[in-house]
Amino acid sequence: MFDWFKTLFSPNNAPDITQSLIVLLIAISVGFFVGRIRIRNVSLGVSAVMFVGLFLGHYGYRMDDSILVFVRDFGLILFVYGIGIQVGPSFFSSFKKDGLLFNILAIGTVLLGGIITYFLYFIAKIDIENAVGLMSGSVTNTPGLGAAKSTLQEIQNKFPTKVFSDPTIAYAITYPLGVLGIIVTIIFSKSVFKIDLMKESFSLQSKKNDETSLIIHEKCRITNNELIGKSIYQIFKELGIQNIIISRLKNSGSKVVYSPSLDSKIHHKDVLMVVGNQKDVSHFISLVGKVSTDLFIESEEDVVSKNILVTKKSATHKTLAELDLHNKFDLKVTRVIRSGLELLAQPSLELYYGDKLLIVGNKEAISEVEKIIGNSEKSLLEPDFLSLFGGLIIGIIIGSIPIFIPLLPVPLKLGFAAGPLITALFISRYGGIGVIHSYINNGAVHFMKDLGICLFFAAVGIHAGAAFYENFIKFNGWLWIYYGCYITFIPLIILVVVSRLVFKLNFYQLVGIMSGAYTDPAALAFSTKYLDSDIPNQSYATVYPLVTISRIFIAQLLILLFAS
């Protein structure tokens, strides 16, 4: 009576669509449960899905080949596109600060890992596909594995007689080493360099206070008699002030607050609300007067402040100068928040869909502006599938462009990993392409990333599990783990030594670079709890995109150059 139920959940070498989906969903659901188990603040996280897939594959569970390939590749595309959309804005802005140095250190680590992989292939006589699998697993880099498998498939399509091993086996064997290797190195380096976390935190906070990108507001009382009777425009011009916005003005002896224009005259002991970065605001106040403790200027009786979301096409991809809100509505935009970044509202700033504007003015005018800008939270919550799938299509097209390089057996391609990632980075940087915009709410981005990596891990785990034990014995898996230690630890140790002794990097930032250089979210999660800080997240996001692209290219080049 219940034979149909038994058939659904029993191992099958020739599964149909329903049985394939059941195996896939079991791998993901059980994997999530296993990934939440913690041992001393360490958990496998989403990577547990792959190990559950290996277990299922080992015990005879299979997926239909066409479904497995689709799930694997589509999952990888979703994952890397979500990463690109999430870190794009901060990735490009980071190059104005420490981002260039962070990326040089991280990419140097990638290149060193590639060189060590080549020497292992050459000296230990490991097949290049297995060597690349060892490399990808030892540094926990999933897109690199995906790129290697795609390149091997391209070669097999052109040369049908060639047979290659599945790099997923080596990847799965060394993956735990990659996770644990970073964690051990973090703990070990903290001890060796005698890191004082309080001192490191204070040092980093002092540096942040000096950063020019932090937007603040400060009250200022005018005491410089040479400025009395002059307009704000004249004062800015004479003092050479550029990156400052005066959002509110209260005349001396009055309780009335208004949003001034550049033509507004300044009187003795007037109080201004000054907006800009810490350095510029402090410099401006030192020139015109002193910090004020006046409370009336913060009153919401005459002038109010309100956050408005850009959700209408009439405001998207227009500069603040083009909208001209001050002359049309007597309103002033002081700040723009984009993907968690605060930007000073300069006239040349172009607005993107999903931006949040901080507007100062009277209530009636703000209500009118809402009709132009949108301010519809519901629109942001609703998924825009045109933008999402349109972006994915562009990414796949870019990833499919053949790059012909002499002496290589097949053209080099960005593939399903690098193509969507690069596309997402630039879409998020420039706000979109035509009708395709970059905004995806945080919940949707996290869901897309987690769903994508779960699909990929489940597919590669189930496929590799079929021959995992036999290959572990055949290729001496413990020896592969030994080889993987070279790829895992040598670049990490050199990264730590150079970063601390040569560049004097803050330990919190260094830990983020270490996790980012190995694209390891499990190590990042451990480090944030171990250090009780979210600071590593910032440097992790700074290096992740370029590291991922570099690892994809290294994996492809090794396959193309040495696959026989």
| Count of separate DSSP helical elements | 23
**Radius of gyration over C-alpha positions, nearest whole angstrom:** 28 Å
The fraction of residues in strands falls at: 5-15%
Rounded average pLDDT: 83
What spatial order of strands do you see in the largest sheet?
3-2-4-1-5
DSSP strand tally: 11
Inertia-based shape:
elongated
- Intertermini distance: 53 Å
Structural class: alpha+beta
Give a quick account of the main beta sheet: strands, pairing sense, barrel closure.
Answer: 5 strands, antiparallel
Helix content: 55-70%
- As residue ranges, the low-confidence spans are none
Feature tags:
564 residues; alpha+beta; five-stranded antiparallel β-sheet; four-stranded antiparallel β-sheet; RCK_C_sf; AAE_transporter
Quick description:
This protein is of the alpha+beta class. Helix content is 60%, strand content 9%. The strands form 3 sheets. Strands 3-2-4-1-5 form a 5-stranded antiparallel beta sheet, covered by helices on one side. Strands 6-9-7-8 form a 4-stranded antiparallel beta sheet. The protein has a two-stranded antiparallel sheet with strand order 10-11.
